[in-house]
Amino acid sequence: MLSYDPDEKPELDPDAVEEGIRLQMHPINVTCDEPDAKVGDPSGVSFIAFAPFIPREGEGIQLEDGESCQVKRVIYKLSRRPGSKMVMMVPNVYAVRLFVDPK
Residue 12 is part of which domain span? Predict the structure, then answer.
């Protein structure tokens, strides 16, 4: 569910989806990009996370490696679960990595 390839879409683990639904959480596709990155640049990270809320513009996300990103946009995309007729509206969060002064 994690990808460093800008052309690859993170896969959604069916077991994680079931657990997220059971815990009443939403699947969220997150892209944390480098500042000033252009479309197609080999930078940043994309992943799917589950949360009980949708991050809003301006909020911060601290990644597992300690890096931080600031949410810039939230775009909703329609997606169909494999083998299901149900259509989900999945939030896609675009964030930009924050540089921390090492002082």
Answer: 2-98
